[in-house]
Amino acid sequence: MTRRLAEVAKKVGVSEATVSRVLNGKPGVSEATRQAVLSALDVLGYERPTQLRGDRARLVGLVLPELQNPIFPAFAEVIGGALAQLGLTPVLCTQTKGGVSEADYVALLLQQQVSGVVFAGGLYAQADAPHDHYRLLAERKIPVVLVNAAIEHLGFPAVSCDDAVAVEQAWRHLASLGHERIGLVLGPGDHMPSARKLAAARAIAGRLPDEFVARAIFSIEGGHAAASRLIDRGVTGIICASDPLALGAIRAARRKGLGVPSRVSVVGYDDSAFMNCTEPPLTTVRQPIEAMGRAAVEVLNAQIGGASVPAEELLFEPELVVRGSTAQAPRE
């Protein structure tokens, strides 16, 4: 019992005495705190007291495209924790190849009568992907928040990291090190965040040769294949649209017998877990995950509470984190 009190109290950010009052049905606790404690019980896997089992916490779908990229578990931790503090229980929905689709998850969430849905990465960012399930959510007037850039006209509020600023920071860093042949490893052509990054790079570079832009699936293997093509074309600095793509670029350089950063400099994007532990430690552009996740929950909770929230995009400033994967451009 003592361990349960301590864990729940830590999760919610209240005292063990407050948790005890909720579990014993005593007065003197606000409704928001009460709901947060009950939600924390659910999240931590504890059974509610018998007298409280009929008092179910509100559910919120948290839909992620994958868990292999560390950025998505990081978003899930922040968003899930913020939801629990508001008395909302996150329902994690993760896509797998050949498994349940995003549309299937939306159908399941609607069956569960969820209070809202947060999408952190998904088909909303791809222009050529199916979007009928988003329109279904809009028709049902389900509160929705999207994390990072979406295609136009979906009509949902979004919380995004500024892709243009991210590329500008990375590009200027490589240019300051003397790199003149800078390439990009981006996602598919219909991927909105990648499109924004490409537009920013072209604005900075003035003229960016098409052969210095390579497309890839978001994985280490995709980064390896795309970066290999860029290196063959003489690129010495590579800006990648995710950290796994950047790790693939480093591997591509090494497979060609080229040192990183002595011959090829690589910049990632996200600053996901353990990027300071790679060899070399990865220079990357950090997304402000904590601020973005909490903002997404605030926007969602406002909608759940009946507030009118405009379908606008909140842009958050990224931060360049310089580590060991970038250095002065090699002398010919």
TrEMBL record:
Residues 3-57 form the HTH lacI-type domain. The keyword Cell membrane does not apply. Keywords: DNA-binding, Transcription, Transcription regulation. GO terms for molecular function: DNA binding. This is LacI family DNA-binding transcriptional regulator. It comes from the Bacteria. InterPro entries: HTH_LacI, LacI/GalR-like_sensor, Lambda_DNA-bd_dom_sf, Peripla_BP_I. It comes from Streptomyces rugosispiralis. The keyword Zinc-finger does not apply.
